[in-house]
Amino acid sequence: MNELFSIAGKVAVITGAGGVLGGNIARHFVQQGAKVIAMDIRQEQLDKRVAELREYSEDVIGLLGNVLDIPMLESVAEKIVGKWGKIDILLNIAGGNIPGATLDPEQHFYDMDVSCWEKVTNLNMNGTVYPSMVFGKVMARQGSGCIVNVSSMAAYSAITRVPGYSAAKTAIANFTQWLGSEMALKYGDGIRVNAIAPGFFIGDQNRRVLINLDGSLTDRSKKVLAKTPMKRFGDIKELNGTVQFLCSEAASFVTGAVIPVDGGFSAFSGV
Question: H or E element: which one contains 146?
Answer without folding.
Answer: strand 145-150
